[in-house]
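This part of the workshop introduces the protein records we will be handling. A record pairs a protein's sequence with a compact description of its fold. As an example, a complete record with its sequence and its C-alpha cells follows.

_____
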Amino acid sequence: MPSGSPSPPRPGCRAWTFALVVGHRGHGALARRLFTDSIGLGVAGRASCPIVVVGHSVPERPSAGRQVVLGVGEGTDADAAPVTFALQEAQARGCDLVVVHARSRQETRQDPPGLGSSQAAEALLGAAVPDRTAIERGVVVHRRVVDGPTRDALLRATDHADLLVLGVRHRHGMGRRELGPTHHAALRHSPCPVALVGGDWSSP
C-alpha cells in the first residue's frame, strides 16, 4: 500500500511505504498465536515486499511522542532495506526514529580492546543510521544499546511506538524468508504494528 511522496501526515494518519498490510480481529493469546503462525508460514515467508502486521487494535499516540522503532543487529549497514524502510516511515509520519540494538553476553565479551562496554554497539548503530542520513531525511534519531534478550528490548521499546521494523533474512538456497523467535515474539506481543522487511526490498 503506497504512502506516496514522503510528507508530514495529518495528525493520526498512518502511512505505509509500499507494503502489504494484513490484520486480524481475534482477541486473546491463542487467537494472536494462531494468526501469527499462519503469517510466518505463509505470507510473510514468501512476499517480496515489506509485510506490515496490524493487531485487532492500534493504540493512538500523542503527536508529540510518536516513534518508529527499528531493531538493528550485527552487520546492518546504512543501505540495508529495513533501515531505508524505517527512515521513510518515520519521515512520512513526522515521527522520531528509535534504533535499538540488544547485546548478548557473547557480544559483550567480544568488545574490541580499548573500547568501553557499549562503545562497539554504539558504533554499530551509528553505522546503520548515520547522522548525515538522518539530517537528509529530516528525521530525529535516538540510538539505544540494551544488554539482554533482543525480544525483551524490542518489546519494551514498542510501549511508545507507532511501528516496529524488523529485518528478515532468506534461508540459504531457498526463496522463503526465515522468521526467528524474535520475529514471532514481536508479532504475538507487540502493542503496535510490526513491519517485516526483507533484504531484497528496494525503495520505489
